[in-house]
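User: We ran a pulldown and think these components assemble together. Before we commit to crystallization trials, I'd like a predicted model of the whole complex to look at. Sequences follow.
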Amino acid sequence: MSEDNTVFIGNKPVTAYVMACVTQFNRNADSIVLKARGRAISRAVDVAEVLRHRFMKDLVELTDIKIATEQIETREGNLTNVSAIEITITKT
Amino acid sequence: MSEDNTVFIGNKPVTAYVMACVTQFNRNADSIVLKARGRAISRAVDVAEVLRHRFMKDLVELTDIKIATEQIETREGNLTNVSAIEITITKT
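Assistant: Here's a predicted model for the assembly, 184 residues in total across the polymer chains.
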């Protein structure tokens, strides 16, 4: 899958990411991967749920959910572990 | 699956839930379902990752991840939607 179809979930409101996904699907993406780390994980789940139950109801489905641990560097230069999620949403 | 094997993730530290899971596996549970809602979702992912990569490395594996939307009643008596996750961890 092309990295172009990835939506990184950060601190913006849920609807901002929902709109980014709708735009990508309208540009003929067949599937989108939502990626989030740490506390943004729950927002990624919100985006997936709002997309499939409201904005694109019956048009998309969840096809994969993966969780993982990633190493990131802190401001002090130390390595620390952070949980991550990848949710794949595909046109039906 | 018996409800006894469910661990509800709330606001305690990650290690509290990791220890609850280790205890249940030591009492011969074959699998455990971590359940969380809202902002606790990212903590549920942390618990699963710490269990399978550290405390019970090579002893357990992820067998299912589901996300859903649940309706809850607010203090004012209104219904509101909240995202939820269920992560199933099974002995290898």
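Strands of chain B lie at 6-8, 31-37, 60-73, 79-91. That may be worth checking against your pulldown data before setting up trials.

User: Thanks, that helps.
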